[in-house]
TrEMBL record:
Function, as annotated: Transfers a succinyl group from succinyl-CoA to L-homoserine, forming succinyl-L-homoserine.
Native species: Thiomicrorhabdus xiamenensis
Reactions catalysed, as given in the entry: L-homoserine + succinyl-CoA = O-succinyl-L-homoserine + CoA
EC number, as in UniProt: 2.3.1.46
Site annotation Important for acyl-CoA specificity: residues: 318
Chief site of localization: cytoplasm
GO cellular component term, pick one: cytoplasm
Pfam family for this entry, one: Abhydrolase_1
Subcellular location: Cytoplasm
Record lineage: Bacteria, Pseudomonadati, Pseudomonadota, Gammaproteobacteria, Thiotrichales
InterPro entries for the chain: AB_hydrolase_1, AB_hydrolase_fold, HAT_MetX-like
Protein name in UniProt: Homoserine O-succinyltransferase
Example of a GO MF term: homoserine O-succinyltransferase activity
Active site positions, chain numbering: 149, 316, 349
Length: 381
């Protein structure tokens, strides 16, 4: 069953400066967030969902524009993350373009759009701002933090920076830091955007345009890394759009058509801000919590007290199961309570968003444990 009432975006205005990892300071900001379900009397059933690169606060249900949440298949009454049991919260990351303060916002210091002047933000900064949202909601401890891909990285950062505020940490299709290959993909995507003639050094809004070509190419490249070779082979093979070769540089193969459609949709229909794309990929590149602990992930996770579920997917070559093994090993080095599942899937990195009976079974069973611990916490108060 889905959430039937139109979802509503709320805004938390923060008037205290946020000291960022980069050394810059954000004098004030807003966080956009949605909630689903009911917070129980002792506020022990709250779950925070952390979104991936192009995600936002609209994670479940249907909004006023008829748009379905990006993880609606897993969140709602009776679903894996059951809103009859849990109070689910999801915020748009700082630097985003879906309501939280970011490059498309007005800089209060000069009254102009931030654009490229919006400071670089990191995963650690997001967690700091999300913790203020926790305080605003008067939640003492999250029943669970849940995130896939970049969202999983935020969950790890939460478990390290605010261990006492996290009861369960669910890290899906993530990695403890990007590989050189992943950083390289991000750099090519950024160069595609920044070399677009309409980029105007990031001040494209002032020029009343968008770097559509660059953003489209960046999304096409990113999308390629989210899919597996096997899945693309099954879905497209070498199927031709017109049934025969045309011997020109127009779209001939169905896979070309698909990628162009995905790129166009991202750059136009969703109108994702190009500066936000640059910021988010940089935040991914910078993520390396072990760097503060002599580059020893086991030492970094020694701070964590949460119980963990780590999930990876066999065909995910961007954040392969081996990267999850690194997380699990570091947790086991600390005798942490950790469950791990390696799920067979042909869908590559995107598998964490898609239906999969094995994945759903593992996830649902773990959420029963989260619920049992929530009831226990409730009984103690």
């Amino acid at each position: 069953m889905s959430i039937t009432n139109p979802t509503v975006t709320h805004y938390l205005a923060v008037n205290q400066p946020l000291q960022l990892t980069s050394g810059a300071t954000l004098p004030e900001y807003e966080l956009a967030y949605e909630t689903y379900g009911q917070l129980n009397e002792d506020k022990s059933n709250a779950i925070l969902i952390c979104h991936a690169l192009s995600g936002d606060q609209h994670v479940a249900g249907i909004d006023a524009n008829g748009k379905k949440g990006w993880w609606d298949g897993y969140i709602g009454p009776g679903k894996v993350i059951d809103t009859d049991k849990f109070f689910v919260v999801c915020s748009n990351n700082l630097g985003g373009c879906r309501g939280s303060t970011g490059p498309t916002s007005i800089n209060p210091q000069n009254g102009k759009v931030y654009g490229p002047d919006f400071p670089i933000v990191t995963c650690k900064d997001w967690v700091q701002s999300q913790n203020l949202l926790r305080e605003h909601l008067d939640v003492e401890q999250w029943a669970a933090l849940i995130g896939g891909s970049m969202g999983g990285m935020q969950v790890l950062q939460w478990a390290i920076d605010f261990p006492e505020k996290v009861r369960h940490a669910i890290v899906i299709a993530a990695a403890p830091k990007l590989s050189a290959q992943n950083i390289a993909f991000n750099e090519v995507a950024r160069r595609a955007i920044m070399s677009d003639p309409d980029f105007h050094d990031g001040r494209f809004i002032e020029h009343d345009t968008i770097p559509k070509r660059g953003l489209t190419l960046a999304r096409m490249l990113g999308h390629l890394t989210y899919l597996s070779d096997d899945m693309m082979g099954v879905k497209f093979g070498r199927e031709l759009r017109e049934g025969k070769l045309q011997y020109n540089y127009e779209v001939e193969f169905q896979v070309e058509s698909y990628l162009r459609y995905q790129g166009e949709k991202f750059a136009t229909k969703q109108n994702f801000d190009a500066n936000t794309y640059l910021l988010m990929t940089k935040a991914l590149d910078y993520f390396d919590p072990a760097a503060d602990f002599e580059h020893d992930l086991s030492k970094a996770l020694a701070q964590a007290t949460a119980k963990f579920l780590v999930v990876s997917f066999t065909s995910d070559w961007r954040f392969s199961p081996q990267r999850s093994h690194e997380i699990v090993k570091a947790l086991l080095d600390n005798d942490a309570d950790v469950s791990y599942a390696e799920v067979k899937s042909e869908h590559g990195h995107d598998a964490f968003l898609l239906p999969n009976p094995h994945y759903e079974g593992v996830f649902r069973n773990y959420m029963k444990r989260v619920h049992q611990d929530t009831l226990a916490a409730e009984a103690q108060k």
